[in-house]
Amino acid sequence: MENIEKTTNEEVLFEGNFIHDFIDEDLREGNFDRVQTRFPPEPNGYLHVGHIKAIAVDFTTAKKYNGICNLRLDDTNPQKEDDEYVNAIIEDIRWLGFEPDNILYGSNYFDDCYEAAVRLIKKGKAFVCDLSAEQMREYRGSLTEPGKESPYHNRTVEENLDLFERMRKGEFEPGEKTLRAKIDMSSGNLNMRDPIIYRIMKVPHDRCGDKWCIYPMYDFNHPISDTVEGVTHSLCTLEFEDHRPLYDWVLKEAEFEKPSRQIEFARLNLSYALTSKRRCLALVNGGAVTGWDDPRMATIAGMRRRGYPAPALLDFVSKAGLSKTYSVVDYSLLEFCVRDYLNTNAERAMAVLKPLKVVIENYPEGKTEEVSVEINPNKPELGSRKVTFSRELYIEADDFTEVPPKGYHRLSPGKEVRLKGGYYITAQKAVYNENGDIDHLICTYDPETAGGTSPDGRKVKGTIHWVDANNCVDAEVRLYDRLFKNPNPSDGEVFDNLNPDSLTVVENAKVEKYLHGHAPLDTFQFLRHGYFTVDKDSTEEKMVFNRTVTLKDSWAKQK
Fold first, then answer.
1. Which of 269, 322, 414, 488 is the most exposed place for a label (fewest CB within 10 A)?
2. Contact 465, 352 (CB under 8 A)
């Protein structure tokens, strides 16, 4: 369990938006007397950041109207689908705080699709075509030139029924024949130029076995699934706007009562992020990332593993807004939402990424005491916890220099600093090893400054963090940054846009022993470093932490 509280599906509502205006109008005019939505992903990859918006729109819209929202997995292409993706989709939705009323599949409606296709053939609205895919492209025309009818366009109803039945029985090979809607080859909308509604695929289906060797196309299955399922409002992104005439045509010509209404909204486009499943799969297969849940990926699984809290992601999509206008949201807004949430909710801890041992020569040997540190200064009601302090500590190597530059307020010979929650210490000298590197630092402490205050009122400008060398554990810390150096990684070859500094691994960090044994997804603020999350690769011998986000927006300085 994460140590950050989870969200619920009541927290994000896109109030006062055009989708709700359409729904209110439908309810007033009696077009529907209830509201039902659905989230219909294809299980051919992991869900990504853009899906979070769609999930939030679908589920919170149903919630607002006390309606139903189902998860319907679009399994109409058995060549690309996998149970791994099905399970990941369900896990992601539940982790975000939503629970589908039902978990359904597009294949639940294959019989309905087949019957609808037969009705269209009988009405003269569909025909079996022998054109190859290449020939169809030639016949289709272009945006400026009308298409031309297939030479098989005018087959008789009887011939089409016979051929379609033979397609169903497996008498033809893939690509040999298709079933096409008979609409308008001169339409300005290319989707209406006699689109394919069934194709032959001799591939067993995970849920249907060998029952089918013909499968409905998405644009045919989707409206039928919506309507048979009882969906009142089919909410989808703008790329389906040009498909809406076909959606409506299918339901009208196949004679479905109370057809669903499709409403489109702008998808969430995020800078420095790749959401194409095909290209994401290429990154996985090409070894550029460790998997779909690599913390640099814009998948929900990747962001969860990195430590992005679900409430922060939902806050992000809410701030990004809901409209019908294409836009790209800057990645810094996502990081702001994550940082803002964790600043309020994450427990504080101390970790040293580049350890330099400090020996406090005037501190009693063998003595160990406890000092108090705040759990979270933004939640004083949580109080504090105890951290051990002893003669030997680790500090950051960068917190000491023998020749300090102007404005340097950390340790240097003769310079005094405050240890967070501990004492004032003064650097005396550096001890070098045989390689000429600093082995450890000799310091002294003022025993009158317990808790970081001085009875004589003297002030120090520097405060540094530390860990007790006798009560800490080794850790691997993975410093993640943006995966791409180009804000639009889809421009050109994806592998050419990779950020070579997207991952830096710190092998021998030292962290408080308190952190040992915390579970994956537990998140902390490492003082002065940023926010870090326990990774699933952690073992009893070595903890592994992922940097979730820095304390400040480091990218803003680079622009």
1. 414
2. yes
State the virtual CA torsion across 59, 64, 66, 68 in degrees, nearest 10.
Answer: -20
Rounded CA gap, 196 and 466, in Å?
66
Structure tokens at 152: 């098989």
Q: How far apart are CA 93 and CA 310, in angstroms?
A: 10
Q: Give the pLDDT band of residue 555 (cuts 50, 70, 90).
A: low
Q: What average pLDDT score do residues 335-353 get?
A: 97
Q: Provide the residue count of the chain.
A: 559
Q: How many CB atoms lie within 10 A of CB 98?
A: 24
Nearest to 303 by CA among 349, 343, 335: 335
Separation CA 380–CA 84 (nearest Å) = 43
Distance of CA 145 to the CA centre of its chain: 41
Residue 36 has pLDDT above 70, yes or no: yes
Backbone φ, ψ for residue 125 (5° rounding): -105, 5
CA separation for the pair 547, 335 (Å, rounded): 12
- At residue 231, the 3 state secondary structure works out as coil
For the chain, give the longest Cα–Cα distance: 103
Q: How far apart are the first and last CA of the chain?
A: 37
The mean pLDDT of 526-546, rounded to a whole number, is 96
Residue 312 near residue 553, CB atoms below 8 Å: no
DSSP for residue 411: B
Q: What is the distance between the alpha carbons of residues 519 and 549, in angstroms, rounded to a whole number?
A: 19
Contact 425, 450 (CB under 8 A): no
- Report CA-CA distances (Å) from 402 to 31, 122, 391, 412, 430: 78, 90, 22, 5, 8
Q: Which tokens is 448 given?
A: 């009158």
With tokens 């002294």, the residue in question is 444
Token couple for 204 = 């067993």
pTM of the model: 0.92
- What is the spatial distance between Cα 88 and Cα 45, in angstroms, rounded to a whole number? 9
pLDDT of residue 5: 46
Distance between CA atoms of 311 and 320, rounded to whole angstroms?
14
Active site amino acids = 42, 267, 277
